[in-house]
Amino acid sequence: MTETLVDVPGALLCAETFGDPADPAILLIGGIAGPMDWWHADFCQALADGGPPGSNGGGRFVVRYDHRDTGRSRTDPPGAPSYTGDDLSLDPVRLLDALGIGRAHLAGVSMGGGIAQQTAIEHRRRVASLTLMSTSPVTHDPDGPTLPGPTPQASAQFHDPPPDPDWGDTEAVVRWLVDAERAFSGPGFDEADTLATARQVVARSLDPAAAANHFLVESRPVRGTLADVAGPTLVLHGDADPLFPPEHGAALAAAITGARLVLLPGVGHQYPPRSVWDVVVPEMLAISAGA
């Protein structure tokens, strides 16, 4: 794997690549306030390897990156972001430009799934396929179903959030991140794995407190609808998602022509946990097997 700083308008983005650049590219787009570490390196390597030994799917060139204000990417003072939601949404295309990748398979989780949808609608020629995880439609269908809201426990994380940690206390920040992940994960929450990733997040981040700037930026409406999505689409959704209950995944799959919905048992609103990699990795390799 290779880590690099990529110059895009208004920021330096930290990106890391796995595999052979000659293979089809998969760009992983993280959720709100999420640095690249939440896409586990072992998960990225499994995609790069093309699955378990003996599989015939071929490898992938996998790219993960730190959003602005996360990890080692450009970081503004907490509470004072210098960018807009448009910048977060345009950064995948800018990153592909900087890496010399004309067309990629996009995979996004939560906010990253929204960004992937917007990219597929507004920059169709750059997107070979979509994998959308733990997310919801970015455009409203007035004739579509009314989608359920978050569970009371998930809503409480926004309406009565826990206090910020002492940002100078590394272990307190790590525990705060673990608690935040636990609040949205499914019943099989992997405390040890999450703890290890949270420690990595804090160790790599220029300023962990700056990630909350994502909640302060405003975004414009998407220019188009999900009917404009042209490439193959896979929707992966946890059946225990407390933020976007499974109906959101079903609505998303119904709105995109030819999309396929795969429900992940026991998974909440989270990056794919190790327990379902044996499902998620083959599904992502299959959807990204085309040109």
From TrEMBL:
GO terms for biological process: glycerolipid catabolic process. InterPro entries: AB_hydrolase (IPR050471), AB_hydrolase_1 (IPR000073), AB_hydrolase_fold (IPR029058). Residues 24-269 form the AB hydrolase-1 domain. It comes from the Bacteria. Residues 68-87, 135-156 are annotated as: Disordered. One of its GO terms (molecular function) is triacylglycerol lipase activity. This is Pimeloyl-ACP methyl ester carboxylesterase. It comes from Promicromonospora sukumoe.
